Each structure stands twice: as structure tokens, then as C-alpha cells.
Amino acid sequence: MSKIFFTVGPTQLYPTVKKHILQALKEDIGSTSHRSEQFQKIYSETASSLKELMCIPDDFQIFFLGSATEAMERIIQNCVKEHSFHFVNGAFSKRFFEISRQLGKNSQQIESAAGDGFNFREISVPEKAEMICLTQNETSTGTSIPMKEISKLRKRYPDKLIAVDIVSSAPYAAIDFESVDCAFFSVQKGFGLPAGLGVLIVNRNCLRKSEELEKNGVSTGSFHSFSSLRKYAESNQTSETPNVLGIYLLGKVARDLFEYGIERIRKETDAKAKMIYGFFEKNTEYSPFISDEKNRSKTIAVINTPDGSRNIIENMKKNNIFVSTGYKENKKTQIRIANFPAHSLSDTEYLLQELSKL
Ligand SMILES: *Cc1c(COP(=O)(O)O)cnc(C)c1O
After folding, report:
1. DSSP letter (8 states) at residue 92
2. Mean pLDDT confidence for 209-225
3. Which of 137, 199, 221, 235 shows a CA-CA span of 20 to 30 A to 311?
4. Could you tell me the distance, in angstroms and rounded to a whole number, from the CA of residue 305 to the centre of ligand 1?
């Protein structure tokens, strides 16, 4: 029996990844120059497959970075002169906020109580905030922000930029790119790929802001400033030698997901999420950490385990099933289960069946 990874990232590889890696070896992708025409073709195919899959409008640009964490830093450097405003609902949104402070910005945050959503109507974003930063799906707590709340923020604050972390919700989450100026993810979560690639999707407002900062003598970084990323992206290149294999594989998997059907993926994700949460709700020992269903992530289920996470994790390992511990301070008391396109219905049934035996 092969291993099944329900870990939140890195996670189970999408079923077609192996085939694409073998093909990449045949095509000598590992030896391909990033200045070659072959690479330019890979870049443009991956960018257009992503645009098609995620309904990204044509006037957005796609940049390839090292990780999602890098995307946080690049966004702050390029879009914020002094003030960003952060909705903090867990460890990753906290990291986004802290990065802005470390870069010397005078940023502010609103923090939700652990596992709770935000009362958006009662929150007002400070006048001086240039950008609003949100983590649509908090992998540390399993909270999710409904897209319609982000769209409402857009209507309330049309002059502010909006940045959204979609690392553990893409490609499941239907992002309304009218309401978002930039979004980012890394590939080892919902896309089911090996780690080592970040993707940043930006519109013209972000590029314009970055230019304005540069004109005013604000540092926007070096090789990965938006102006440098853009210059190279326009000819389907990168300034440095990138993760060529990662970009190749992402393009292939994005195409596979598109052909499989994004609506079908969404329906299946919803159905599996219902099974997973239903199982833990019925169980007398475990309980979902997020009590309000509307804030519950469909792709990351965080579960309280009164007898500790260790036993469960060790027992599941014996069946070749891998689940994640809780994040940091909840490491010992919670488990986290990923529900990505790479997780089939039958794998999920198997997971729940084995859990029910504990
Ligand atoms: C994993 C994760 C990140 C960090 O991704 P890296 O690729 O490790 O930089 C950021 N935000 C969220 C929500 C995540 O789940």
C-alpha cells in the first residue's frame, strides 16, 4: 500500500505529477537554459494555463518567485510606502504583518480571536493604509475568509490596494480578481507539486504603485523588484535562474486541473469537506476547531483531539496515512487534514474509515 499524505503542505502529489516528471527528464528540462526559447515557451504556457484555470484577467501579470513567504516581502516592498493594514487570523497572516514591520513599515493589524472570523462590518481600515492584506485561508487555524467579504472591502475602500494570500485555497477558491490587486501561492499545497516555487499574480495598480515608489527613491528590492520581474516577464523570462522544472510541472498540472474541470474540483472538494467535518462532528471525542461553519476552511480541516495528536498521527502512520499536527502551540492538541484536488474521494473515505477504528 503506498503512502497517502493528507499533510497540509508538502502534501500528496497530484496524480499526474510522476508522469510529467518522467516526461521532463525525457525533454532534458533540467538542463534547459532559462535564456532559451524552450524556457520562454514553458513560462508562457504555464502563465496561460494558470490564467485559464483560475480565471485571471489578461491584464494581470504572473511572476515566479522562490516561495509564498517571498511573495509577502515583495508585495510589501513594492506596494507600501509606509502603511499596510493586516487582517490577522493565524500564523501566516501574522507573518505577513511581521514582514511589513521588519521592512520598516508602520503597519497595523486587527487580530481575530483564535479560530474566530472577523466582524468585517465593524472594522474600519485606517485612512492612511495603502494596502489591505488578507489570508484567505489560514492554514494554521483552518479559518477561511469568504470571497464576498473581500469584495465588500473593495467597494468600501476603492482606493486601497488589496493583497490576498491564497496559498492553501488555490485553485479551489474562486478568486474575484476584480476585487483583488495581487494574490499569491506556493505550489506544494493545493496544486500538489514538490515545493520550491512561489507564484505572484499582480495587476497594473500594483505595478504603478511600485513605479511610483521607485520614482520617490523608496527601495523596492533588487532582482525581484516589480520593475525587474516585469521587464523579464514581458519576454517570458526571469532575472535569475529559476526553478525551471517547477514552472514546467505547474503548467502541466494547471492544464490537467483545467481539463478535469475546476467546477468539478470545487464540487468534489465541498463533498469531501462535508464528509470530513461530518465525521468529526458526529464523533464524541474529536471536534472541528472552527465552530462557525461559514468561517471553516474547505481545504484545511483543523480538529481538536482531547487525547493529543500524537497517538492519532502515529497510528495513522502504521496504515501509511500521514496527517499534520496542529500548528505551533497547538501541535500537541490538534491535527490538520488537507483536502486538496490531489486527495481522491476514495482516499478520503479510507482515511475516515481508519480514523473510526481508533
Ligand atoms: C504554507 C503557507 C505559506 C508559506 O508558504 P511557503 O511556500 O512556505 O513560503 C503562507 N501562507 C499560507 C496561508 C500558507 O499555508
Report:
1. H
2. 98
3. 137
4. 24
For 89-110, write each residue's pLDDT tens digit: 999 999 999 999 999 999 999 9
The contacts of residue 161 (CB under 8 Å, 6+ apart) are 79, 130, 131, 132, 181, 182, 205, 206, 209
Model pTM above 0.90: yes
- Provide the sign of the torsion angle of the four alpha carbons 339, 45, 135, 309, taken in this order: positive
- What pLDDT is stored for residue 112 in this prediction? 96
**What gap in Å lies between CA 153 and CA 212, rounded to an integer?**
24
Confirm or reject: Cβ of 79 under 6 Å from ligand 1: no
The count of residues in the chain is 358
> What is the pLDDT at residue 30?
98
Distance 161 CA to ligand 1 centre (A): 21
Q: Is 167 in the pocket of ligand 1 (CB under 6 A)?
A: yes
pLDDT exceeds cutoff 90 at 271: yes
pLDDT digits (tens, 9 = 90+) for 49-88: 999 999 999 999 999 999 999 999 999 999 999 999 999 9
CA–centroid distance, 139 to ligand 1, in Å, is: 8
**Is the C-beta atom of 165 inside 6 A of ligand 1?**
yes
Query: What is the reported pLDDT for 306?
Result: 84
Query: For residue 284, what pLDDT band results from cuts at 50, 70 and 90?
Result: confident
Question: Among the atoms of ligand 1, which is closest to the Cα of residue 139?
Answer: 15
Which among 215, 107, 225, 112 has a CA at the least distance from the CA of 160?
Answer: 107
Tell me phi and psi for residue 165, to 5 degrees.
Answer: -80, 115
- C-beta contacts of 309-312 below 8 A and 24+ residues apart: 309/333, 309/334, 309/335, 311/358, 312/355, 312/358
d(C-alpha 289, C-alpha 81), whole Å: 37
Amino acid (one-letter) located at 102 = Q
Report the C-alpha gap between 161 and 53 in whole angstroms.
24
Which residue in 149, 54, 134 sits closest to 94, CA to CA? 134
**The 3-state secondary structure of 44-65, one letter per residue:** HHHHHHHHHHHCCCCCCEEEEE
Cis peptide before 57 (omega within 30 of 0): no
